[in-house]
Design goal:
Chain lengths: ~160, ~130
């Protein structure tokens, strides 16, 4: 190959290096823009919130609905939570035996129930998946303090809104 | 006379030309491979750093501490050493219902919220931070 060919080959080499560099940087910047690594702990928060609420509402496993009603407060305030701490949560406690529901206590943003239903339906898409609220649904057997003590179940449902 | 000389030396010259051409091509290929490997190596290194960046480690620490505070009862305390597996922890604050953690010089602007009916405070010691729930 003569000298002119060699310099042309050098120019092509530089072009190839620049092209590889440009492609690499483009991929890197695009992935940086769209790469959003979020660690979701909302389900864990919902579980902890449910347990803390049950410990508050039914200490030592004894549920006294009368004292709860007499306080005149919502469950969050009854359990000593500020509005700023509880604004992300929705809580539903259904108290009942095997046959019927005795009472239902609700506090928080009820709109989260509707949001949770959407995420549980076919309308959920990948683009909104990261905003899915945290959820916990559990049953806690307790003793209901009435004229006598009665075995009942507390069905606790907690929904945690995404932090935006 | 010169033509005879040229003819006599022709195989040697051709052989030298062929060797130079092959050596030249190999040289170029090796240089190109080295350059491309170097560039891709740099790309992977920068991407790995981006994936494993301070923001992710900060997020991990904030959420771990928030969950611990959520599940804590009065009288509990948690120690977070400044020399941490997630990096060097510069500062931890608990204010307005949020946990803020600064890691490797990266300050926290948003924090992560916690819920607790108890008072949460953070005490700084020489080699650690102590989160107290009272």
């Amino acid at each position: 190959m003569n000298n002119k060919g060699q310099s042309g080959s050098g120019i092509i080499t530089i072009y190839r290096v620049l092209a590889v560099s440009a492609i690499s940087f483009t991929i890197f910047f695009l992935s940086s823009m769209f790469y959003d690594y979020e660690i979701s702990v909302k389900d864990s928060e919902a579980l902890i919130f449910a347990r803390q609420t049950v410990d508050c509402v039914a200490p030592n496993g004894i549920l006294d609905l009368d004292s709860l009603r007499e306080s005149g407060e919502g469950i969050f305030a009854f359990c000593g939570l500020d509005e700023s701490e509880s604004e992300r949560f929705f809580l539903s406690i259904s108290v009942g035996g095997s046959a019927e529901e005795i009472d239902r206590l609700v506090d928080g943003d009820e709109g989260l129930e509707w949001v949770q239903k959407i995420y549980g339906s076919e309308f959920k898409t990948e683009s909104v998946k990261k905003y899915e609220p945290g959820y916990y649904n559990g049953v806690f057997p307790v003793l209901l303090k009435d004229d006598s003590y009665k075995d009942v179940e507390m069905r606790v449902e907690v929904i945690v809104k995404d932090e935006i | 006379m010169e033509n005879k000389k040229n003819i006599k030396n022709a195989p040697v010259i051709n052989f030298k030309n062929k060797m130079n051409k092959r050596g030249s091509i190999l040289n170029k290929v090796i240089v190109q491979i080295i350059l491309i490997v170097f560039i891709l190596g740099m790309f992977l290194w920068v991407t790995a750093d981006r994936i494993n960046n301070r923001g992710v480690r900060q997020q991990v620490l904030e959420k771990e501490i928030a969950l611990l505070v959520d599940s804590a009862v009065s009288g509990m305390s948690f120690e977070i050493y400044k020399l941490n597996v997630n990096g060097i922890v510069n500062n931890i604050e608990a204010k307005n219902g949020n946990i803020f953690v600064s890691v490797d010089g990266l300050s926290s602007l948003k924090g992560y919220s916690y819920f607790s009916k108890y008072d949460v405070s953070v005490i700084e010691e020489p080699n650690k931070f102590v989160v107290k729930v009272e």
